[in-house]
Automatic annotation (TrEMBL):
<feature type="transmembrane region" description="Helical">
    <location>
        <begin position="279"/>
        <end position="306"/>
    </location>
</feature>
<keyword id="KW-0472">Membrane</keyword>
<feature type="transmembrane region" description="Helical">
    <location>
        <begin position="133"/>
        <end position="154"/>
    </location>
</feature>
<dbReference type="Pfam" id="PF01032">
    <property type="entry name" value="FecCD"/>
</dbReference>
<feature type="transmembrane region" description="Helical">
    <location>
        <begin position="50"/>
        <end position="70"/>
    </location>
</feature>
<keyword id="KW-0812">Transmembrane</keyword>
<dbReference type="InterPro" id="IPR000522">
    <property type="entry name" value="ABC_transptr_permease_BtuC"/>
</dbReference>
<keyword id="KW-0813">Transport</keyword>
<feature type="transmembrane region" description="Helical">
    <location>
        <begin position="235"/>
        <end position="258"/>
    </location>
</feature>
<feature type="transmembrane region" description="Helical">
    <location>
        <begin position="348"/>
        <end position="366"/>
    </location>
</feature>
<feature type="transmembrane region" description="Helical">
    <location>
        <begin position="318"/>
        <end position="336"/>
    </location>
</feature>
<keyword id="KW-1133">Transmembrane helix</keyword>
<keyword id="KW-1003">Cell membrane</keyword>
<comment type="similarity">
    <text>Belongs to the binding-protein-dependent transport system permease family. FecCD subfamily.</text>
</comment>
<feature type="transmembrane region" description="Helical">
    <location>
        <begin position="104"/>
        <end position="121"/>
    </location>
</feature>
<feature type="transmembrane region" description="Helical">
    <location>
        <begin position="191"/>
        <end position="215"/>
    </location>
</feature>
<protein>
    <submittedName>
        <fullName>Iron complex transport system permease protein</fullName>
    </submittedName>
</protein>
Amino acid sequence: MASPTSAAANPKNPQGVLEYAVVPGAAAPDAKTPGCPPASEAPRTKVRRASLLAGFVIVLVLLALASLAVGSKHIDLSTVLDALLHPDGSADHAIIRDSRVPRAILGVLAGTALGIAGALVQSMTRNALAEPGILGVNAGASLAIVIAVGTFGVNGFGGYVWFAFGGAVLATGAVYLVGMAGARSSDPVRLVLAGVALGAVLSGIGTALALVHPAAFDQLRAWTIGSLEGRSADVLAPLALAVLAGVVLAAFTGRSLNALALGDDTALALGYKVGRARVLILLAVTVLAGAATAAVGAISFLGLMAPHLARRFSGPDARWMLAFTAVLAPIILLLADVLGRVLIPGELEAGVVCAFVGAPVLVMLARRRKPVAV
């Protein structure tokens, strides 16, 4: 959608030609309109972005295959393909199908969920440093794990993963209720402040309880690092359903994110219901981040870095940014998981490697001459 702006207020436009501001995702003005780019640029841009996105999808597939071959026991790629297409029950085929395939699927699902959740949080709050943990997701999940292990005696990942998801959901809901209490409209600043405050309280309570219960502290420490190793394949189906639901919700928020980026007043003037849009975004973040965090642990850096990297290729349109993030985030997570298997003897958790790999990338993006606005 384009709206004319005053030419008299612009000293660079003494002829009085009307200028237009274009909202991403809205109908583009006619190519003959003064001050507007040629209409042929939009199709070329879409083709370029689609080509880049397809290229990243190919990279993701190749990296997933590499994750099936690399590990404590290296397996030839031909054996990997035979295990996927013509399994014969051999030891190598069993390792690939029973251990590494679920692990690769988990990396793709969790990476996609954490990346999209981070992109939604950054766009909703218009804060380039925001990530899902800022809404209390990690703190709520960690407190629930401590309660499950220390109070109810739950042991093993398969037992406390459901507590972690419930804690993440309840914490995010509490953040929204506290942030919106007494407010006439949803305010991202209030949400961030409520999330930071409530997250600090929940983290303090969880740490105190964990110190009282040594077994809970050990479980919490293993979960907090963030890893794809040792996760049960039983969580794949629930995680896939949660990610599917969250992606569908995120897809419906694309145009709203474009409008919210211009400010609440402009979004209201364009006919968007800001409060309902933020509730829908927060619901998508809760489902995506809660499920992924419960499944793989607190890999918070991924939700911060992947959206920044995606904006280099997507431009200002939030819909393209979400699409690129959905592919780039699992690439980063799988790459960190593969590197963790080969960097040191044994295995280094993906959450640790993700920070080592992502920090230089984020520093490089921050030092660019033309930073991309959220």
